[in-house]
Task: structure prediction
Amino acid sequence: MTVGCTVGYHAPAPGAHSGVADYAETLRIALQRIGRVESGIPQADIHLYHLGNNRLHKDIYCRALADPGVAVLHDAVLHHFLLGVLSEEQYIAEWIYNYGEWRRDLGEELLRERARAAVDPRYFQFPMLRRIVERSLVVIVHNPGAAAIARGQGAKHVVVIPHFCEASGPSDAADAARFRDRIGIPQGARLFGIFGYLREPKRVLQCIKAFLRLNAVRPETALLLAGEVVSPDLERILQNEAGHPAFHRLGRLNERDFSIAATAVDCCLNLRYPGAGETSGIAVRLMGSGKPVIVTDNAENADFPPATVLRVSPTVAEAEELFEHMCLVTEFPAIAREIGSEARLHIRQRHSLDQVARQYWETLCAAASSVF
Result:
């Protein structure tokens, strides 16, 4: 049913090199089945702004400040985004706006050491959200961890809407078998997969170390890394592992190949530390297809019931817990399948695209009516 409310829709262009762009386009189409949604229009009853932690969002961020509406924080830490788009003078001014003149020295230190921003936890501890959350009428986030960050930075109205998962069945098992044959993975091997943009906070090196330890005692295992490496330092390290026979690298996958690869793997590794308040669309999608997923035990993943994922502590225990979970998936496939089944049920109940779109629309209409 169409509702008489016009939404101005602001997101990276469809097809842009960004998971947020893919998410936003799918959501836009779903929202258009409910009401009127127009991309980029200057006047509307309410504007929806998709914000993330890369340069693609610069114009959207500026528009969200100039004409406040509903801001979707796909990352609840925008520090790295602002480091990339502001001049040094602008960055220090923004730092002082967020954290005060008395912390200027720390801001200047972080600016000087910004080459470490991808791995230094300090850049994640200072989200730099105050300006956007104070200006926005409503802030939408995807998990309770991001909600806590937004509120802590001054957001008055925060709505948690789960990251959607499109309803789609797994790819054909024959396609998955051919995929394994093509990249040289034995059909009986337990295959672990890491998908998406590969960067240090996804704990790629820690996952590789745990896998190599597992493979030494369980050679009927394999590891697939499928995605673009966005860190030159990480790329150099990964090249050193390229010769291992159980280690397989692919680049960024198109939609069809991703679906096939997701069917082919037995378990997804999806760790995040330090976290930026993001919910992983890849984790949600793999869970929705009935695969066990190993995640970091943090506030971002708090909404996943205990039986639906395997959790790894972001502490010194990380390596041992990760290894133990990988052993469980390898040695007890029935338990792994049960976790995947529970995950699929949860995602279907809480993360369906139509359900999420309705929650967005209700929030937008409420904001347009000044209910908040």
